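Task: complex structure prediction.
Instruction: return structure tokens for all chains below.
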Amino acid sequence: MDKELRDLIYQTIDNTISPSDFDRLQDAMLGNVELQQEYLRAVNVCEILSDPSTLQSETLAVTLPERPSVLSRVVGMRRTFIKAALVAAATLLVTLTLQSYVGIQARVASPIAVSSVINQQPVVHRGLARIVQRVDCVLEVEKWGATTSEEFHPGESIAISQGLLAVEFNNGVVVTLEGPAELEIVTAESAFLHTGKLSALVPESAYGFEIITPSAHCLADGKEFGVSVDGTGNTEAHVFDGEVELVPTRSIVGRSNGTVESDDRLTQGFRMRALMAAQVPSRRVRLDEPWFVTIPADRSRFVRIPGRDDEVRSDIPVTNLPLTDDLILWFEASQGVQRDNQSRVISWSNLADRSSEDLGSQKSQPAAWQVNPSQRPLWKPHTYPVLRHPHGWPSIQFGGRKNEEFLVTSPVEVGDDFTAFVIASLRFGKGGTLLKLQGQSSFRISQTLSQPKFVASSTTTKNDKASSYQRSAIKGESNLPDMLVLCAVQYSHQNNTFDLYVDGRLQGSATPLGSPPKKGTHIFGAGGSGDRFFFSGNIAELIVYNHMLDAAHFQDATDALLEKYELSTR
Amino acid sequence: MTDPGLDLERNQRFIGLLARTEHIVRRFARGLLPGGDGLDDVLQETALEAWKKFSDFESNELGGTANDFACWVCVIARYKVLSYQRDRSRDRIVFRDELLAELADLALGGLGSQEDELNAVEDCLEKMGEKSRRLLLSVHRCGDSVAKIAEETQKKPRQLYYQINLLRSALLDCVRMRMAED
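Output:
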């Protein structure tokens, strides 16, 4: 018996079958006496199981735990109904009895729909999942001008052609979808990955969450796992934290090279522990071929949205900043760098979010991202050794115009009052933009082409006409190439301050331009999309406060950075 | 004017036959109604129609045993199902008429084996381990549930759901083998 069809039969009995699956079952049943018999037998057996009065065996009767007295009463009533009916004499009584016959039947236990068993949580009359973060993401429907709902309901599909999309289910599961991919929301606790890659972060309360693919069910019994499905339905499941039970789908169990088989070994799941992975082919070539093959788990193959409660993945202490309030960007190359298998940076966690006051809020992490593998900068663990750190500090290396590497943050609001610090090294003869803050106006820290000099510049529209703008810039002194340097900018339109510092020394001042605060994405390593000013050099740390620090705090922060990177001793 | 004594006897006979065969009719109708939607409505309509036409059954031509009565009521039920599904085909999952007819014919032909099937189910359930049996019965009966068992066994409901379908399949295979042996 084809297990796929048998599953459809169970779904029909449980009243959980979809219209399309029901059509498939009907197509298969029409003219197929064997399948019709199987269906009728399944119905009969389930009816027998549903009716406690039919099973006479004492062994079976004692298996159930104490039943509510209501059920015993109902069953008892059903039997006494027959005796009472025998002494009924009038047609009216017959009619009444017939009506009560039906009523009693309705009260006898009936099969509980599987969905009602599984979904123990109250029904929530809104979407089952919602978008919590988009990174350079294009949804397929938006290509045609259609607007996308931020919430998804059962049966709705999420198709992205590129980028990352993080979707949070109501039970707290966060699925990060990596384009191109298509994910269908099935229930509050399951989703069908038709194609593409995803990673899932599962809180303990949501264990049992399931990703279904054309060839396997991945049941989460742990915190983190990744699943990929290629164009032919082959599945890979990787477990990173906790356990996942892998169960073949009916199409794998039931068919092998066109033949139908029944093998109990196939119906047993494969329980994968942390750092295990398995491939499940969409079709097996030979009958004796295993339905899965174990492979090494590879975390770098799966992108995930860094969680708010993520542990810092480095023992290296973060910079001892004198003030961590009101930070909007704080990136250290030793902390929270998610890399691919080429050590290229997928995402860089924003430590500012960790230090902010609203830790309990659910807002997403404004990390910096690069979803395009060919434009990811390189993370280097040991660069620029200093006396106290002979192995050097980690830094992120940007390849300049040739490689066009950069990172982009999620939108963060920035105005005309801020302080920025960048610990970076420059290359000789390679101009480019290290940092671009994009608010109402744009602010850049760049390197000149001719010399390894820092340039801080601000540009804003002069009036409502976009073609008319103001620019204010400061060029610093020449620095030694390929050495870490601290570049700092104090900027305040209100206080009429626009100062550029290198290694704590003032390089020059200019007139700040005023602009109201505005949310924007901020770019590390380039001046913008399509920009030619790709930075060539390394960035070890980058800090932006959402106000201009007072002189004391600015000095303290400068000293902390100079001391950490031993810049004042050279 | 009818004799009250004869009416009483006739009513008793009808109720007795109905009581002895109701589980057969119920399973027959359940097989034709995917998901069991409308089963109670159909059974009620069937019983009332059977009562109205009981005089037809009482004629010698239709026989008089409980099995004959079950077969006769199932034929009524078949048309009640058809009628019910036609009324509701737009908003419910229902079998196509052609398939419904094939299923009804097959089910009518198998009415006589229902007792054997029941015995086979009992035997096969007894062979099953108690934990598996309880899990299997949990989705079909009040007083127990997959959620409750999941809590007791520290397993996830969805995992148990897969086990339930495996147990169902094992039970069906066992029943089929037992029926074939008999």
